Every structure is written in structure tokens, then in C-alpha cells.
Amino acid sequence: MIVVGGGLGGLGAAFSLSRQGLAVRLLESAPAFGEVGAGIQLAPNCTRILDDYGLLDEARSLGVLPDAMVMRDAVDGAELTRLDLRHLEERYGYPYLVVHRSDLHGLLLRACGRAGVELVNDARVTSYENTGGGARVTLASGAAHEAGMVIAADGLHSAARGLFVDDRPVSSAYVAYRGTVPAEQPRVRNTDLGEVVVYVGPHCHFVHYGLRGGEMLNQVAVFESPKALAGQDDWGTPDELDAAFAGTCDAVREGLPFMWRGKWWRMFDRNPISRWVHGRIALLGDSAHPPLQYIAQGAVMAVEDGWVLGEHVGLHRAGDGTVDWTAALAAYEAVRAEHCRRVQTTSRAWGELWHLDGLAREQRNALLRARDTYDYSFTDWLYGPTALTPDQEPDMFTPVPLDSAAVGGAALAGGAA
Amino acid sequence: MIVVGGGLGGLGAAFSLSRQGLAVRLLESAPAFGEVGAGIQLAPNCTRILDDYGLLDEARSLGVLPDAMVMRDAVDGAELTRLDLRHLEERYGYPYLVVHRSDLHGLLLRACGRAGVELVNDARVTSYENTGGGARVTLASGAAHEAGMVIAADGLHSAARGLFVDDRPVSSAYVAYRGTVPAEQPRVRNTDLGEVVVYVGPHCHFVHYGLRGGEMLNQVAVFESPKALAGQDDWGTPDELDAAFAGTCDAVREGLPFMWRGKWWRMFDRNPISRWVHGRIALLGDSAHPPLQYIAQGAVMAVEDGWVLGEHVGLHRAGDGTVDWTAALAAYEAVRAEHCRRVQTTSRAWGELWHLDGLAREQRNALLRARDTYDYSFTDWLYGPTALTPDQEPDMFTPVPLDSAAVGGAALAGGAA
């Protein structure tokens, strides 16, 4: 079979399907495999899968396990709420890990190599079509590849998505700057590198966390571009960055000089779609469900997609190795489309909440301060086991063992009769 | 197509599939349609579906909307925790309704009649087999019925389940007595009929709630049978009932004289199974996933099964009306098997929690007392929208509108970046 796209989603899917005994060819448009960007957060719903792949120890060695995620108000710097990431790891059974995107990409690429995935570069797929018993992709070069099944993990600007819907990426008018603060800077010494900190402010937010053994600080600064709102093309420029954060607290503003000012990432998502499978062509990752980044689930969803697909391929494979693709793909679509739709819409809603101003900001802050640190009602659906194959996952929703019930009110709740 | 079994699950499935334009024949073994039992609790994940079916108003008129579900200790009678069912309705968008099982059954039966379902009595199916393009069932009479698809909603003692697994019902050694207290009894006047009350005690529990406009009290008494534990066949007899509740508080013991002493229900479930689809034969309801009753989801799951199947039939139906059964059934199984497995294992775990004795009971009580009334972390996965077709359900996990945010800490939680 063929996987189109050598990003995190495509590599994860190729590895997962190889594990099921399938011969996989991966087509990547770029002349070499690689990944741009800086840090990436891997919630337990991703590290659970890395563990199943036998890759978690390596991922741990490349990343950092922060102690806490702390949300602060960007204007006055005050703490609003936090997640205890050590306790969260106990709850979900797997850690919350932060790594460089390039390190995760390299890890998956090496795993694909070991698994025998055929990795092909300089192969930009421009069109997809179903054949009788499979599907065919055509490259920009004019060459074609055919297989019994094609996974289109071709990203936000997917060429395959046009088979399903005539849509375009949706601009949020927000733009992200990234940067790292080197170890020798006083800012690094003065920061708790065990915390992932999110400063939420009016029309902006700022994130930092430690990377690579904790000796550097990864930073992300995100804001709404007035030029984007005004319909101008050259939006998100560094002058807008400075203006957007002018009203924030010292702890935020002192991080701005470390942002890379030569490159910025305009933030787009797409509206959810419910069908990802067309004959023997299926979308996966950002081609199916590109989200805004507010709950850090874009790459995680792509990794989940590949794992779920692999599991259902395993369930719908006959003794002779033949896969019932109709069944496996229908199961994949049924399990994943609704979940990813919720991630997309929830991400948008969190963005709105983070960026409130005025009285609404005050109300939000009061609500967040009232939240119990150990209330997991907003993470269970996301970080808990992915709905897929039975008999594999712990049931976190059953009562905790009574001798570990030190956590308080969140541990138990009333049932029915 | 054919649905085998005229219980709540079979009727629900027949109605759902009729709505999708399919011609449905329903085969029921009994000479007339009916339902035994007393009250049944319909959580929002069921009333949501009744609403989608256009049947919720009728169900409301037949049932009661209690104000609260209260858990109390059966020994000392003290309150342990509660659900505010009015607020719960706001959270999930649909009410928590209690009705007579027979009223719900009648409602679904009438809906099937109006939808044109062919209802056949005296048709006891004894065997199932796949044919080339569909499936065939054979009756005890020797007659056979064939269709493109057969749904086996044939209950705890399903004949179809043997196609999937060689298992038997698992005895919990618990037995239930039911009864109703008539309106003229002082007990009814002295009870808050707006509450569903669960008294949890050592090796026993007791439930009561108002039914039919609140003018009668429905009661359920459940206990572990010493004779069952000793391996005796005649277990669960009324003498065991009296002994089991001897140590409970007055409020419980005063209800015992109203239990029907001539009939009792031994409580069985089965171990979860992951495959429910075999060619063109699919399990549904108790044939697939009979649970213990502790979280009141047995009939609710069966109704959900039918709805989910109908939705996926709709998604995998071609323009000419042909259903891609391979895809629809794979999607149904992928969505439902994992959810129902969790309900089954969670039900068992709740039963253990309810029936604790000694120090473990004290620890449980302390935990339950510490729970916030508005902590929904243990009901969201159950009462929230069923994972199935996209773009239909509200996203309860997104932040609440700030002007309705009076609920406190449970309303919001930290995200990621």
C-alpha cells in the first residue's frame, strides 16, 4: 500500500501498517525527510501509542517530562489554574512529554526504516483516483504509483481532500512566533523549566517550556493580527508582534527578544468533515482534520489516526493476510471522524476563551481559579484511551482503588441503580 | 431485513432501520409483545435518542423527571453524594427520565407499527446462518426467514451469540426483588418522590423512586445470596431477602414489606466480547453486551446500538438505496463494542464499590462525601453524545458560555498550548 506524505502522520501510519504485516511505500514530496518547527507537546493519548509501538523509551530520552502545566493571566501574571502532570501521568497511565518536533520525526523515520517501509523522496503527488481494486496516485513528474490502498497524509493543503469537499483553510487571523532562549541567559535560570506555562491574554497568548534535558527554554508567542482583520495581505509581521504584547506582564515581555523574528506561522484550520474514505483512498492527519493548536492535538491526532487504522486493519484481516479494506476503513472513519471533529471545534473554543478581554476576561479568570487541580473532566475525553479495539485499555472511569484515593472529590461519583 | 427479538433493543433497532427506509421484519418468540419488570431509568444518552426519534414528548408524558439522584449509606441512612438532575439536564441537553419498562416498550412498539415494521409473533429463532448475499434464520417450527441482513437482538440467552463465542452468562450471586408502594401508603407521603435514592450497603443495596406522575414509589432491593455463594441451586429466596437487609436503617427496612416476594431476578452478565458482526449477522443489545445493572445502562445501550446502526446505514447507503453492509456493520462494531465493554466492566466495578463492608465502606463513604455535586467526570463518557456521526451533537466539553458559568470549578479546566 501507499502512504502519501512523510510528516508525523504519514510516518506514524506507515509504521503502524507495517506492523500489521503490510508492505508500505511512503511518498514524500521534499528531497529529504525532515520537520520544521520547535517543541511539540505529546499528551498521554500519544505517549500511550508510542509505548505500544515500543518507542516510548526512546521518546523519553529525547524529551522532557514537565512537572506541571500552569495557566497564567498574561496581563497581571497571576496563576489561574494548573495541571499536575505527575498525577496526570498516574491517572492516564502514560506521561505528558515535550520534545522537539524534529526529534519525534526522526524517531518515527528510523522506526519506519527498521520496519521496512519503502521511503521515497522527491515524489509530489498531485492527483488521486480509484481504480477497480485499489487506487492510483500521479506525481508532478507524471509518474504513477498504484496500490490496493492509498493513505493521503498530505497535510493542510492536501490534494486528496478535494475528493471529499471543496473547501479552503480557514484563517484564524492569529499568527505564531517561535523561539528558544539559550541556557546561558538569566531568563533560563530564573524560570522553572519543569513547568509548561501558558499566559493567556487579550487577543494574545504566550507559552514557554523547557526542552532537551531542560537546559533551554522553548517559547511560542501568538496574537491576533490587526492587519489580517483589516484584510491586508502582509499580516503577522514583527511590528504587530511587539504591539500585541505591549500590555502584557514583564515575564511575558522579557521573552519577546528571543523570538525568531524572521519567520512566523499564520494559523489556519479547516471546518470538520465527516467522510474521509473514498473507495480505496483515505485521508489521515491534517488532510482530514487540521485544527488550531490550542489544545496541542494536531500531531497527536495524526499519530492516533495511524494507530487506529492499523488496529482495524488487524481486526479485518483474513487468515491469508487479505485485508477487508471496506470494513477496516469504515471502522477507522467511524471511530476517528467524530473524535477529531470535537478536537477541532474544541480547539477553536479554547482559543476564544484564552483571548478574552475586559469583563469576560475577569469572569474567565474567576472560573479558572475555582477549578480544582485534580478535576479531569475536561481532559478525560482527550487524554483517555482512544475508542478502538476492545480489551486493551485500562478503565480509568471505574473507581480508583481505595488505598490510592488520596486525590479527593474527583475520584468517585454517584452512579445509578 | 430481519430483527430477531421484540424487546427494547429489537424494537429500537427496527424503528431506527425503518427510518432509514429499510423494510424490516421483526420476529418475536412470545405469542404477544410485552415487557416484564418495573421501572427503568433513562439517562440523557437515551432521551437524546428518543428526541431524535420524535418520541421524547410521549416518553415524558409517560414518565417522571426526578429532581435528584441521591446516594445514601444503607446502614446509617446518611447522604453520601448526589446528582442534581435538573442541572444534569442542562449539561447534557436532555433529561434524566424514569418510566415503567412496559410504557417504554409500548411506546417503541407503537412507533414500529407506525413506521411499517412487520411484527411477527410466535417466531422463536433457534439458528442463524450466513447465505451468499445475506443471512437466514430458522425457527423452532422449522420455518425459515431470509434477508440481506439479520440483527440478533435475542437477549441474554442469545442463540446467535454462539456464532462468536462459546460462553455462558456469569452469575453475580446477587438477586433483585422489585415492588411498588401504592399511593395511599404513609411511606409514599413521607418520601420525596422527586428523588431517585440508592442506599448502598454491605452486600446489598436498595433503590426507590417515584413513578407515573409521582403517585407511587418504585422499589428495588438487591443482595448477595449466601446460598448462591455456597453453590446451592435454590438461591435468592425471600428468607435470604429478609436476612440480607436485617442490618440496614429504618428507611430501607420499612420498604421491604412492599417487595413482591413471589418473583426475583437473579443477576447475570457476560464477559465483554469484541466482535459482534459475522457476515450479515450482527448482535445488538443484551445478546452482545449484557451488563450488571449498577449504572442503569442495559436497555439504554440497546437503544443506542439501534440508533448508531441506523446512522451508519444512512452513511453507507448508495443513491439507489443499496446499503454497503460491510462498511455499515464495521462502523457499528467499531463504535459500539469498546463503549459497551466499558459499560460492562464499569458496572461490575460499581457493584463492588456499593457493596463494601467494614473499613473499605468507611473509606468509600469519605470519598463520596468529598465529591462535588457538579463534578461530572464520571458521567461525561456515559451521558455525553454517543460517538457516531459527526456534525450533530453539541460539544459539552467546550467551555460553557460565560454568562451561565455559575456552576463553579467543574465548568472549565486548563488546556495546553
TrEMBL record, chains A, B:
InterPro entries: FAD-bd, FAD-dep_Monooxygenase_BioMet, FAD/NAD-bd_sf. GO terms for molecular function: FAD binding; monooxygenase activity. It comes from the Bacteria. Keywords: FAD, Flavoprotein, Monooxygenase, Oxidoreductase. Its cofactor is FAD. Transmembrane segments: none annotated. This is FAD-dependent monooxygenase. It comes from Streptomyces genisteinicus.
